[in-house]
Amino acid sequence: MPHSPLPPPPVPPLAPALIERFASIVGARHALTDPADQAPYLKDWRDLYPARTQLVLRPAATEEVAAILRLASETGTRVVPQGGATGLVGGHLPFAEGGEIIVSLTRMKAIRAVDPAGNTLIAEAGVTLQEAQDAAAAVGRLFPLNIGSKGSCTIGGNLATNAGGTQAVAYGLARDQVLGLEVVLADGRIWHGLRTLKKDNTGYDLKHLFIGAEGTLGIITAASLKLVAAPRAVEAAWVGLVSPAAALALLARAQERAGLAVTGFELMPRNLFEFVLRHMPGARDPLGAPAPWYCLVELASPAAAGLRDMLEDILASALEDGLVADAAVADSSAQREAFWRWREGMSEMQKPEGGSIKHDVSVPVASVPAFIAEASAACEALIPGCRPVPFGHLGDGNIHFNVSQPVGADKDGFLARYDEVNALVHGIVARFGGSISAEHGIGRMKRDLLPAVKDPVELDLMRSVKALLDPKGILNPGKVLSMPAHGVEADR
Questions:
Q1: Which of 52, 91, 291, 375 has the largest CB neighbor count within 10 A?
Q2: How far is CA 22 from CA 74, 125, 145, in A?
Q3: Distance (Å, rounded) from C-alpha 219 to C-alpha 124?
């Protein structure tokens, strides 16, 4: 199992009177103290981090969030902001010691405004990604952030973790989709920053402090989001290749010919696709023969004509040049959706194969083939019989370098080497000038790794920003930065 960082210094349990004060802000129905009611808010998709809390608060408005934080600041109560609880690094969970309360934003569901002329949408933090996409589609627009958990993850959580996803190759990460924010600060003040301007050069761009901060600097309650023209044509292909190097050459060719119409370019190995074929109902191999590697390539365009011809031309030329072994172009939206279902199910399909040691890393795009080769060989030498299954977003260099246990091995014994494998893979990432967290965040899983990979001046600046915006240390303590809680512990 991965190293579990120490929690912040312990604090006494919340007094019943203080729990009642918090509950009065949101109403008794939305102040959850029963463990059965709290269970959905304490889930960890990887089953790595036990969590406990005395209180889950479910505010319905920004003013209620502000009132909660004013009281938390007054009493030194630690607060864990939470969206859809789909995080993968423990950043959305309180520690098992039970010294924190959860503030869930899932009742804040309003789409406050949609402006197709200005290509903007203002959504509250509890709006799911799917709901934001649907609101954009209703006016002929696209909100281009896209991840597999879109039906349950929320806009607030997406921005707090700076989510990436499958369309980042064309549209960038979550922070690239934001024009403005509304944020409640640790002392309960509200920053009304919901601008929809494309140009605003009036000083520091403060929204980027809170995007990716995982709720350690403030609680995002709403966001002004960028929209783009909805595609009128979308084409996808499942492509068999001999190597990641061939995939990289195919990516370059596709971007040279199609430009920003390349909205998806996902890489995966044959052994991982075999997991899908074994365990996902209805999955089938669309190609005539197995290939060592696969790419899922998607093109999208506001223009209705010519896109399929462009994709077929790209693949035909790559086939002639030996880059591609075979390819299946989706002949319907249902088949295209099946391609994406296989790709998005690849994390889940690793579970039936036993223990999995996971890495969310990035390296320069040109270095992806060499990184995969070196890291795979190193892991196989360290644990003979282990099965590296590197997959992910080749177009932006983000590879989920996961390692499945050897067939028949003891799961617990394999997972006991989690930190050892992490250190090995992260060391190789560092040599390639990469990042140990590409899109999942730091949370508590990677908190203690930061000092080894961050420039000391950069880390000092991060701590200074934290101390300025959260001087009492009440916002998601013990996540991202190892920093003792400060301030008032009396009156609890």
A1: 91
A2: 12, 20, 34
A3: 12
